[in-house]
Amino acid sequence: MQRAGVSRSLTGLAALLALVLGSTACDDAGSPAPDNEDRPSNAVASSTDPKADIKKGLTIGFVPKQADSAYFALAGRGGRKAVTDMGSTFVEKAPESAADTSGQVAAVNALRAQGVDAIVISAQSTDALCPALKKALADGIKVVTYDSDTRPECRNIFVSQASAQDLGWIEVELIGKQIGYRGEIAVLSGGRSATNQNTWIRYMKNELADGYQEMKIVGIAYGDDDPAKSRAEFRRLLAEHPDLKGVVSPTTVGLKAAADYLSVSPYKGKVALTGLGTPNDMRPYVKNGTVEQFALWDPSELGEVAAHAALSLASGKISGKAGQGFWAVGTGWFIPAENGVVTLGEPTVFDAKNIDVYDF
Asked: Does pTM top 0.85 for this prediction?
């Protein structure tokens, strides 16, 4: 059930846009020419110079969804590398829990008080963070969201790991292939207010309605990206839905917790499991046959690109306006689209044939 047009390679898109716009938007050296129509960065007007150098000595603050997360540790590692390689300072403030929006608000306020040049945040909530982020913007601090977005007016750029539509489709397709595109499925999500999780689930439902009419979501559980709660919620789904054929967990914590339980339960081989996970977390469960396939992008690359977006914003090279490209060292050109959204690229599908190639 391959869907046409699913591949959206960012590098290819950026190259194409650069080629199309080259005669009017680039100088002879290939650098984008100044754009006199930059919109104000929310409440703060700013001018940009795409030929400007990336400043050294900046301070970039990262706010992941939670501490002690393998996924966000990888994203932070990529962000730290990008920031330090460019001669600036990386700081990180993380709430203890993935459900702790108030902890993220406190982190944003602490970074404001510290006087950072940019904040890079994976938003717990679409709305609850906006007041704090708008205050940061009013202070002249640039704001980049990554992994999970807030409202467009509350940040400059959102670095998306993949298009939400593609992620919704691939989750449905992976589970559908394993259950013969027929039967009851359930979703083990992260937090109820998680912007990215809810968006992907909405697209999953759209995909099911459009082309997978013999599959049906019969339950959605929320593990709050806590291993113990995710495991308990997965067990509850299995107990409450005896005809369940498969479960999708679009969160790395939830997928690992579910796989850990499924691997030693009588449901192994009877209920299919897929979702979003890291190869290192999921390798044992792919090797022992608990999970056939799952998907993800490279979290460290996501962190790198988000950091480079923040550095370019804080250096005055871009404002976040659609069409203003920035260079992420080792990764390529990225060009924000409507509402300042940058897409990393399509996710990778991992299985027994390729999982040993990856180490993250």
From this structure: no
DSSP 319: -
- pLDDT at residue 193, rounded to an integer: 86
Query: Residue 210's domain is classified under what CATH number?
Result: 3.40.50.2300
First to last CA, the chain: 30
Give me the domain span that covers residue 212: 164-296
> pLDDT: is 196 or 97 the higher one?
196
CA distance 202 to 185: 15
Residue 293 CA to residue 295 CA, distance in Å, equals 7
Residue 260 lies in a domain: yes
Examine the domain organization and report whether 27 and 150 are in the same domain.
yes
Number of domains in the chain: 2
Q: What residue type is 165 in one-letter code?
A: Q
pLDDT, tens only, 57-66: 999 999 999 8
Kindly report the backbone phi and psi dihedral angles of residue 294, in degrees, each rounded to the nearest multiple of 5, phi listed first: -155, 175
Cβ distance 307 to 120 under 8 Å? yes
Last-in-domain residue among 255, 274, 296: 296
Q: Mark whether 223 and 237 lie in a shared domain.
A: yes
For 197, residues 6+ apart whose C-beta sits below 8 A from its C-beta are 148, 189, 190, 191, 250, 251
Q: Give the whole-angstrom CA distance, residue 158 versus residue 341.
A: 5
